[in-house]
Amino acid sequence: MSPLMVSTLLLLGVSYAYAYSAGAPESVCEDMLPKHPVDAQKSKMPYKISVSKNQVKPGEPVEITISGKSFKGFFLQVRDDKGKPVGEFQIPDNDKYAKTVNCQNSKATYPQPVMMIREFYCSLWQRFVRGQSCSLHENDKDGGTHNAATHKNATDKKDFKLTWKAPGGAGKYTVYATVAEDGGTFWVKKPTEVISVA
């Protein structure tokens, strides 16, 4: 392989890894799996996910806390009994540590390599064209916005709090969490607290 080709691949790999340190992309909405080069932990997750209230009215805010030892990354969703993300995380755009992700119902599916390339260029667009959003296959989706939360950087976090607003419909909803202690140690899609909306 030519030195130019090797350099290009390394540059793309470093850029792609850097993009993921800035939070989870839309493509992880379904499986909540970080695209790290190692397998997820099979042991019990050493982090506790707690909620300020287990019973709320529609539209009422709930504080969700990730506690335990420090961690670098996370991906949170609150899902209904069909596995669809519901509600809305309320994170200001200027928050230093977290941001929302729009996990919508996909009308079209793309092979994983295509999605990875699209995410890479989308993350570069967002990084270098400040203030401009880049939505992956915007016209291919319908449904939710701000219904997942992820880290904004790989800074150590501890006893981290987020606000989630309950959906308008009654039901029982489960908080799912992926937490990354670091790039090589992470727990994926763990069901935690149940929130009843009535």
Mean pLDDT score, rounded? Answer: 82
Indicate how many domains the architecture comprises: 1
Examine the secondary-structure arrangement and name the CATH architecture: Sandwich
The major sheet is characterized as:
6 strands, mixed
User: How many runs of DSSP E, i.e. beta strands?
Assistant: 12
Protein name: Reelin domain-containing protein
Pfam families: Reeler (PF02014)
Domain Reelin: 6-198
InterPro entries: Ferric-chelate_Red/DefProt, Reeler_dom, Reeler_sf
Question: What's this entry about, in short?
Answer:
With 198 residues, the chain is an alpha+beta fold.
Explain what you see.
- This protein is an alpha+beta fold and 198 residues long.
- The chain has a single domain, classed as Reeler domain (Immunoglobulin-like).
- Helices cover 18% and strands 33% of the residues.
- It is built from 2 helices and 12 strands.
- It has helices spanning 3-21, 112-128; strands at residues 48-51, 55-56, 61-67, 73-79, 88-89, 98-101, 105-106, 141-142, 148-151, 160-165, 171-182, 185-197.
- The chain has a 6-stranded mixed β-sheet with strand order 2-12-11-4-9-6, with no helix packed on it. A 4-stranded antiparallel β-sheet has the order 1-3-10-5, with no helix packed on it. Strands 7-8 form a two-stranded antiparallel sheet.
- Strand 11 (171-182) and strand 12 (185-197) form a beta hairpin.
Features:
198 residues; alpha+beta; Immunoglobulin-like; four-stranded antiparallel sheet
